[in-house]
Automatic annotation (TrEMBL):
It comes from Luteimonas wenzhouensis. It is found in: Cytoplasm. InterPro entries: G_TrmE (IPR031168), GTP-bd (IPR006073), GTP-bd_TrmE_N (IPR018948), GTPase_MnmE (IPR004520), MnmE_dom2 (IPR027368), MnmE_helical (IPR025867), P-loop_NTPase (IPR027417), Small_GTP-bd (IPR005225). GTP binds at residues 225-230, 244-250, 269-272, 329-332. Keywords: Coiled coil, Cytoplasm, GTP-binding, Hydrolase, Magnesium, Metal-binding, Nucleotide-binding, Potassium, tRNA processing. K(+) binds at N225, T244, I246, T249. This is tRNA modification GTPase MnmE. Its cofactor is K(+).
Length: 444
């Protein structure tokens, strides 16, 4: 047992619900439960009981459940007091637990204990939080896979490989007068190349998992008056944004969430980009550019009657965005029989609704290309960055191995191995651990 405190928290969402749960974990959970329930609990048995206050008055009736250590979520004794989902009742239960010696759990403390007791690794514990926060079915499935340990298993497989390579390199150091190739150097280099290939695949998958977790972020950009706000309204099916014939109408960012096939897409309307404009409009444009910098997908809205001019002015801003759909809006104003755009652009009309179904299909495709497909797992920016550091260290190791600088190669392999360990929590500074769990919700 890593901690002698017994912690308690309301584990269910606040608000009226059929059932609400107060959860306890720690060495005193059993005796606190016995005092509250008026009887001792048998492990893994659903007891129907009355929860009583200090004066014997009934707080609520409900189910009490004991998970005896180590067969519990945290690995410690865990008790669940399953009451009616009434916030005043749950608060009173929690207050009674406190009076009997429990302390309020910090956010994420149950999962932190699960981690410290080896029930979950760090990436799995993070997946629990991501599962709870998942906005759509795909995000939830991806988080489930990480929770089952798929991501961790791939990380640890590469880590094991790097460790084995390092052991061989260290062994070769002891035979410094012999050329590496007589010591199986070529096989060693090949093995490292293979590990780097697997690392590349894992990085790409983790990056997709991160995008899914953060949600797909599409930004409407283009010159003033092209019809960005009109398109947001048309896609959202409501008059969310102000639309006028005056260029420079939109200044603030306006956000709307759309659901496609169980996938959530955040669509952001921005101020039209142009050279001039008053101070407010310039601030709007600054925000538009900042929004673009973190976008997965740019929806470039141009006036169908003169698209080229609009696009040229935007090019530099669009560069860093991974996905792009170019829209020629106001198609209803084109002369009949105008030829189709030749650059893959989509002709639409926010006014008549023409082309919007095709746009929805494109959005769906773009979303599918950016986010993990079936079988993908969830990941976080923290993981992607650790994988990048691993890749850099592996590249260095390969270079040193090529140059027969074995000590340096071994050192870079050690760094690579440590960076991977940060993902699962095998190697991690304590303060980072606290920081990660503090972002969880209370009772988790
Ligand atoms: N009522 C309730 N539902 C819940 C949870 C909970 O804590 N309470 N969970 C909380 O997140 C999730 C399930 N997670 C859990 C993980 C492990 C164990 C557990 O008792 N494990 C033991 C026994 C395994 C077995 O009997 O097969 C073990 O692993 O040794 C319980 C819940 C989702 N649903
Ligand atoms: N005929 C026609 N007019 C449109 C269409 N889409 C938008 N408009 C009109 O174009 C004008 C500008 O539309 P907005 O949606 O405000 O344009 P915007 O791109 O958001 O403009 P800013 O916020 O100023 O950057 C309005 O008068 C709209 O009614 C369209 O498909 N066809
Ligand atoms: Mg606008």
């Amino acid at each position: 047992m890593t901690d002698l405190r017994t912690i308690a928290a309301i584990a269910t969402a606040p608000g009226a619900a059929g059932i609400g749960i107060v959860r306890l974990s720690g060495p005193r959970a059993r005796e606190i439960a016995a005092a509250l329930c008026g009887r001792r609990l048998r492990p893994r048995h659903a007891h129907y009981v009355r929860f009583r206050d200090h004066d014997g008055s009934v707080i609520d009736d409900g189910i009490a459940l004991l998970f005896a250590a180590p067969a519990s979520y945290t690995g410690e004794d865990v008790v669940e007091l399953q009451a009616h989902g009434s916030l005043p009742v749950l608060r009173q239960l929690l207050a009674r637990c406190r009076a009997l010696g429990a302390e309020d759990a910090r956010p994420g403390e149950f999962s932190e204990r699960a981690c410290l007791n080896g029930r979950l690794d760090l990436a799995q514990a993070e997946a629990v939080a991501d599962l709870i926060a998942a906005a759509d079915l795909r995000a939830a499935r991806a988080a489930r896979r990480s929770l089952e340990g798929e991501f961790s298993a791939r990380v640890e497989a590469i880590a094991a490989d790097l460790l084995a390579i390092r052991v061989q390199v260290e062994a070769a150091i002891d035979f410094a007068d012999e050329p590496l190739d007589t010591l199986g150097g070529e096989a060693l280099r090949q093995r490292l190349e293979q590990a780097r290939g697997r690392l590349r695949d894992l990085r790409a998958a983790a990056e997709r998992g991160r995008r899914l977790r953060d949600g797909l972020h599409a930004v409407l950009v283009g010159p003033p008056n092209a019809g960005k706000s009109s398109l947001l309204n048309a896609l959202a099916g409501s008059e969310r944004a102000i639309v006028t014939a005056i260029p420079g109408t939109t200044r603030d960012l306006l956000q709307e969430t759309l659901q496609f096939d169980g996938l959530e897409l955040t669509l952001v309307d921005t101020a039209g980009l142009r050279e001039d404009g008053d101070a407010i409009e310039r601030e709007g444009m600054r925000r538009a550019r900042a929004e673009l910098a973190r976008a997965d997908l740019a929806l470039v809205v141009l006036d169908a009657r003169d698209p080229e001019a609009g696009l040229r002015a935007l090019d530099a801003d669009l560069d860093p965005v991974p996905g792009r759909i170019v829209l020629h809006n106001k198609a209803d104003l084109l002369a009949p029989g105008a030829g189709a755009p030749d650059d893959g652009a989509l002709r639409v009309s926010a006014l008549t609704g023409a082309g919007l179904d095709a746009l929805r299909a494109r959005l769906r495709e773009a979303a599918a290309a950016i986010a993990p497909g079936e079988g993908g797992f969830s990941a976080r920016l923290r993981h992607v960055q650790a994988l990048e550091r691993t890749a850099t260290a592996c590249a260095q190791a390969a270079e040193r191995l090529q140059g027969e600088q074995l000590e340096l190669a071994a050192e870079h392999l050690r760094l690579a191995h440590d960076a991977l360990g940060e993902i699962t929590g095998r190697t991690l500074p304590d303060d980072l651990l606290g920081h990660i769990f503090s972002t969880f919700c209370i009772g988790k």
